[in-house]
Design a protein that fits this description.
By secondary structure, the protein is mainly α. Helices cover 78% and strands 2% of the residues. A hairpin with a 5-residue loop joins strand 1 and strand 2. The longest helix is centred in the middle third of the chain and has 72 residues.
């Protein structure tokens, strides 16, 4: 009975505290993760913003900053997750504090521990009284039997001695009879209390089962509470905003693909540093750069054709477009670019040129280069 009270008083509370610590440690993992995301967002935002503007600017820079901003949004989601977990912990902690109260010895015991101990004590009291009386009668029986053996010995000695008087023999016989009657009486009482003891056992077991059933209900409530709290805990860990989270990543990917524009960045750079003149309309600028991009593809140096006599043509507009876009480039760079433009695409009439001689081919090539 006392062991049951001690177990109920100590281990139930200790188990509850361990469960609380388990959930709090799990919550700390997410709390550290959230702090790490926030720190990452702040540090890298500052770092990207302080990058050299010669190489970090406009839409590309904004795309990087928007990517870093995801960390802040994730931290917000993690903070909501932490808040949900903390609500579950606080709810369970409140129930534990209401269930287990502090005792005088500094420990915590179940609020019904005293009630159960009192019921067990009352139920056991009748059984204990019967057992105590039964033990007393057994001790008396042992003494009475010892006295009866002494009386039997004395009687035997008296009747074996022919010199003893009748009065002594009568007194010895009466003592023997009295001791024998006392043993019989005690045996009858023992039999009676043994029956009472058996009945007290049945009564105690019945009451003990009822009390134990109440203890089981409290224990079942404690275990079910842990189960329900674990379910709530898992639900709190789960992200309710999973669809929103997926949308954040989808929007970011779409933003990077559509809003990050290397062409706009190049024009932004060129205008900021005076590489090109201010252009009135974006369409004109786009047309110029589109032409430049097309021309650059055509300026790729190709290997000499295996068929002798295949002439190589150039476009006269290359240099003009480059001069329009890059007026501030030094002359030596212009000459180098102009030299590259003199090597161009193959002529579609390469079949007819097969019949020409090597001398004619060289002459035509020289004339074309001279015209450029």
């Amino acid at each position: 009975m006392q062991d049951l009270g001690i177990l109920e008083m100590i281990f139930g509370y200790i188990t509850g505290q361990d469960f609380i610590c388990m959930m709090e440690d799990y919550c700390d993992v997410y709390r550290q993760f959230s702090r790490g995301l926030t720190s990452y967002y702040e540090n890298w935002t500052k770092r990207i913003q302080h990058q050299n503007t010669l190489c970090s600017y406009n839409t590309t820079k904004r795309a990087q900053l928007n990517t870093i901003k995801i960390a802040k949004e994730l931290a917000t989601i993690e903070d909501r997750r932490i808040q949900n977990i903390q609500q579950v912990i606080n709810k369970y902690k409140q129930i534990v504090n209401d269930t287990y109260i502090s005792s005088r010895i500094g420990l915590h015991q179940h609020r019904r521990t005293k009630e159960f101990k009192k019921q067990f004590k009352e139920a056991y009291q009748i059984l204990n009284e019967c057992k105590t009386k039964l033990d007393d009668f057994k001790n008396e029986l042992k003494k009475a039997q010892d006295e009866l053996r002494k009386a039997d010995s004395a009687c035997e000695i008296v009747f074996s001695n022919f010199q003893t008087t009748d009065k002594v023999r009568t007194r010895a016989t009466e003592t023997q009879t009295k001791r024998r009657d006392n043993v019989k009486k005690i045996n009858d009482q023992i039999s009676l209390f043994e029956d009472k003891h058996q009945q007290a056992k049945k009564t105690y077991r019945h009451k003990a089962k009822a009390i134990f059933y109440e203890c089981q209900k409290e224990e079942e409530h404690r275990l079910d509470l842990i189960k329900d709290t674990l379910s709530d805990f898992c639900q709190a860990i789960k992200i309710d905003e999973q669809a929103d989270l997926d949308k954040i990543y989808t929007n970011l990917a779409h933003h990077i693909q559509t809003k990050q524009n290397s062409f706009d960045d190049l024009m932004f750079w060129a205008q900021c540093y005076g590489v090109i003149d201010q252009i009135n309309t974006h369409d004109d600028l786009s047309t110029s750069i589109t032409k430049t991009s097309t021309i650059k593809k055509q300026l790729t140096i190709v290997e000499e054709p295996s068929i002798i006599g295949s002439p190589i043509m150039t476009k006269k507009s290359d240099k003009k477009v480059q001069e329009q876009i890059y007026p501030a480039i030094p002359n030596d760079i212009e000459e180098e670019e102009t030299t590259k433009t003199k090597i161009t695409k193959k002529n579609n009439k390469s079949v007819n040129s097969k019949q020409k001689t090597a001398e004619t081919t060289e002459s035509n090539t020289a004339n074309i280069l001279a015209s450029v």
